[in-house]
Amino acid sequence: MGYFRGFAVTFRKMFEKRVTTPYPQEKRPKPARLHGRHVLNRYEDGMEKCIGCELCAGVCPAKCIYVRGADNPPDEPVSPGERYGFVYEINYLRCIHCDLCVEACPTEAITESKLFEFSFTNRADAVYTKDELVVDATTGRPQHLPWEDWRPGDDDLTSGWMRATSPSGDASYSGRVSWSGELGHGVRASEVGQTSSGSGKKDSDGSDVEESGST
Ligand code: SF4
Ligand code: SF4
Q: Which residue ranges have their beta carbon within 6 Å of ligand 1?
């Protein structure tokens, strides 16, 4: 008799609304502030934002960033100013996606996308080079590397944008734009603050930010 009761439960569940998603074929929208794979950004004119200062490497608790700066070639500067990031590497076998590198960067050069679905078959592939991290020179969007699984929205907002647009708890800075434009994005609008009745978070286009999990 117990068997029949068990089958009855199974049969009944077949017609109930499914609460799981068939991952990875179907993915839930990611939270706006999720920390994923990094990108190295460019200014709107295409110049690289990284100045090779190594602050990100210094602050990284996992010691997974390797940077070497170099003087900009006078005839063909890579970034505005004196220096640029000549070598830039992140070891994703060590990175814990804490975002401290993003916080430390004085030029908003390094930010994080929402992509975390990537895997490697050897250690060398896990070390992303500057050529792989720097955004596309025409669109300003992250490069889609063959072993990565990008889905719509994974590169829409970056945690760096959230950091840059935050009023840091001072209401007088709310809505004040004080950050530089990015290739492909322009000067982004500020994040709308949160309300006590709900998250109230908005994208730069004013639409509601989907809250679908922890960050
Ligand atoms: S997210 Fe954290 S662990 Fe990863 S590279 Fe940046 S500082 Fe290092
Ligand atoms: S990413 Fe930012 S913090 Fe790191 S070396 Fe470049 S400019 Fe400095």
A: 60-62, 64-65, 90, 95-101
Instruction: Give the pLDDT score at 194.
Output: 57
Q: In this predicted structure, what is the pLDDT of residue 78?
A: 96
Token pair belonging to 200: 């109230």
Tell me the pLDDT band of 180, cut-offs 50, 70 and 90: confident
101 CA: nearest ligand 2 atom: 3
Say if CB 107 and CB 49 are below 8 A apart: yes
Residues 6+ apart with CB under 8 A from 33: 159, 162, 215
Helix (H, G, I), strand (E, B) or coil at 80: coil
By the 10 Å C-beta count (0-12 exposed, 13-18 middle, 19+ buried), 40 is classed as buried
Delineate the domains of the chain, giving CATH numbers in brackets. 21-173 (3.30.70.3270)
pTM recorded for the entire structure: 0.82
Residue type, 169: G
